[in-house]
Write a structure and sequence with these properties.
The protein has 21 helices and two strands. Strand 1 and strand 2 form a beta hairpin. The radius of gyration is 22 Å and the shape is globular.
């Protein structure tokens, strides 16, 4: 394994993170908030560490990366950014412990949205902007990783989206740079557009910017304790709903849209399945709420926003959906595992895997009826290779196993059944709020014991990096020469 190019890139990423810390520092300095000093110290320390790491490896660095280097780079990048991203919280006037600071940072960079802040309004605008920046960076980071790195690593069936330009590890870094530039431009443009629309809908500029960043990143960090429900605006909710859906669709199609190729978005089977699933769940919950005493329009408004927020893994809330009753909360708990499309800012199992799983089930049934027949699974008009089907099945089984183990671990820390079960689901699916009175939409994650927070941090990273990317590094064979 050649560690030099990996360390060089990691040093560059950490240095860029230090530069982003200057933005909230300026905001707090302008406001006269004391947290600007914490940002200054964090930026200085982060910049020094990143620059030193980059310069110490630069002369020996090379562009080519093998499979092991790619795994190491992917895991190292997210872990280092989460670690250094916790420094502004640690040095802030919020008096957070290292565990709480790291939890808030990991939840931000993985776009989970689970928070330990009890009264969000008490935080300075710099801290609120830093939370939004972490989620915004995590959103664009996972898009580039899902489109460039994961298909090459053959993680969980992602090789289904491998192209000729990304078929080997040596081509990933040069091509990923070009891809990242296009995605960053589209991502920034969409963020600006949603900021403008939220301002027109009545939000202050700062709130509009923060919510635009966390909406398109499907992160869910809000500037208010009551989340989007604090604004009580139908227009704001409709704009956020549209943003959550846009963030859940494959970003490669937005690049195609900039070149006039709008048909690819409509023809992608992921998109049609995703929209159909959202409509079905919204209709079910709307009918249930209407039958429970809510007015038809109120039921539709509540069901649309909160169901889409949970399915996309955003985690915003306009109501305490944990009190809606067993049927609605069960559907929402199941919806936590879905996520959006591959190549989007969402997490979860992803729609293409559900489609491949459905095709696998159909093939098994057909083979029982016609033992000697040749039955194939198709995706987007092309037969799915057996290796992809096996990878998707393996990912699904491992996903459920990790969820069970996380729930058991949280239960061992003394958490009740609802908190442990929904906490594991929201961590591995990077959703945000859980169920129950502790970590539900009306609560937060501050009361959890430190051990439970560390378990959830591992679960959030595990889910964000598609399981295998993390677990392969825990194998002794990965480190064997």
């Amino acid at each position: 394994m050649q560690a030099s190019p990996v360390l060089s890139i990691l040093g560059l990423l950490v240095t860029i993170l230090a530069a982003f810390m200057l933005l909230p520092m300026v905001i707090d300095l302008f406001d006269g908030a004391p947290d600007w000093q914490g940002f200054a110290i964090a930026a200085l320390g982060t910049g020094f560490a990143g620059t030193a790491l980059f310069l110490s490896q630069q002369r020996r660095a090379k562009t080519e990366l093998g499979l092991r280097e790619a795994f190491l780079l992917t895991n190292g990048a997210w872990m280092l950014i989460a670690l250094f991203g916790a420094l502004p919280f640690l040095f802030s006037s919020l008096s957070l412990s290292f565990t709480d600071s790291l939890f808030e940072s990991v939840s931000g960079i993985t776009t989970t949205g689970s928070t330990i802040l009890v009264e969000i309004e008490e935080a300075s605008r710099g801290i609120l902007l830093w939370r939004a920046l972490l989620q915004w960076l995590g959103g664009v980071g996972i898009v580039v990783m899902a489109m460039a790195v994961l298909p090459m690593l053959s993680v969980g069936g992602m090789q289904l989206f491998r192209t000729e330009s990304f078929e080997t590890a040596e081509k990933v870094i040069p091509r990923a740079r070009q891809l990242a530039g296009g995605i960053f431009a589209v991502y920034s443009g969409l963020t600006l557009l949603w900021t403008i629309m939220l301002v027109i809908a009545g939000l202050p500029v700062f709130d509009a910017l923060a919510h635009a960043m966390t909406t398109l990143a499907t992160g869910g960090y809000s500037t208010r304790t009551a989340s989007v429900g604090a604004f009580d605006s139908l227009g704001v909710e409709m704009i956020v709903i549209a943003g959550m859906i846009v963030g859940s669709l494959p970003f490669v199609h937005y690049l195609a849209l900039t070149r006039g190729g709008w048909r690819s978005l409509l023809r992608d089977p992921q998109v049609s399945w995703f929209i159909a699933l959202i409509l079905g769940i919204v209709i079910l919950i709307t009918a249930y709420l209407a039958g429970s005493g809510y007015g038809p329009m109120q039921a539709l408004r509540l069901a649309s926003f909160n169901a889409i927020s949970i399915i996309t893994g955003t985690g915003y809330g306009t109501a305490d959906f944990a009190s809606w009753g067993g049927f609605a909360t069960t559907i929402l708990l199941i919806g936590m595992f879905v996520g959006g499309c591959a190549g989007s800012t969402t997490c979860g199992i992803k729609m293409f895997r559900l489609q491949v799983l459905a095709g696998t089930i159909r093939v098994q049934i057909e083979r029982l009826l016609r033992p000697h027949g040749v039955v194939l699974t198709y995706y987007h008009g092309k037969p799915v290779p057996e290796s992809v089907m096996d990878a998707v099945m393996g990912f699904f089984y491992l996903y459920i196993l990790c969820f069970v183990l996380l729930a058991m671990g949280l239960g061992m820390t003394g958490l009740d059944f609802d908190t442990a079960l929904s906490g594991a689901a929201t961590a591995i699916s990077n959703v945000g709020p859980g169920l129950g009175g502790v970590i539900g939409p009306a609560g937060n994650f501050s009361p959890l014991p430190d051990l439970a927070k560390w378990i959830m941090c591992f679960g959030m990273l595990l889910g964000r990096l598609e399981l295998f990317t993390v677990l392969v590094m825990l194998s002794p064979g990965f480190w064997r020469n």
